[in-house]
Amino acid sequence: MIEIVDILIDKIKNEILNQPNRKLKSDTPLISSGLIDSFHLVDLALMIEDTFGVHIEDYELRSDIFDTVDDLALLIDSRMS
Fold first, then answer.
1. CA Rg, the chain, in Å?
2. Which backbone phi and psi does 52 adopt, to 5 degrees?
3. Predicted pLDDT of residue 67
4. Phi then psi for 59, rounded to 5 degrees?
5. What's the rounded Cα separation, in Å, for the pair 6 and 1?
6. What is the secondary structure of the chain as a DSSP string?
7. Number of Cβ within a 10 Å radius of residue 64
8. C-alpha to C-alpha distance for 81 and 44, rounded to whole angstroms
9. Would you tell me how many other CB atoms lie within 10 Å of the CB of residue 4?
């Protein structure tokens, strides 16, 4: 799961936030801190689907599921298993 976390952090910094030098940890709040807004949330879901080949339902686009990279990695890992 470490590989999933590393890929997510890299893609969020470079593709979603367009801030490659930003410090981002796996437990950094993304949504509740305002780092990712509702527009970026959709981009993030699409990026996850494209990168990892998992499907994200619209109702899953919530802060309790998408708030940290750790949360996302758990979701992705459960779908890939």
1. 11
2. -110, -5
3. 95
4. -70, -15
5. 9
6. -HHHHHHHHHHIIIIIS--TT----TT--STTTTSS-HHHHHHHHHHHHHHH-----GGG-SHHHHSSHHHHHHHHHHHH-
7. 9
8. 21
9. 21
> What tokens does 28 get?
């950094």
Per-residue tokens: 66: 């998408």
What is the amino acid identity at position 75? Answer: L
**Considering only CA atoms, which of 76, 60, 72 is closest in space to residue 26?**
72
Domain boundaries, the chain: 2-80
Residue pLDDT, tens place only, 49-62: 999 999 999 999 99
**Tokens standing for 74?**
């758990």
Residue 27 near residue 33 (C-beta atoms within 8 A): no
Q: Superfamily for 2-80?
A: ACP-like (1.10.1200.10)
Instruction: Name residues of the chain where pLDDT drops below 50.
Output: none
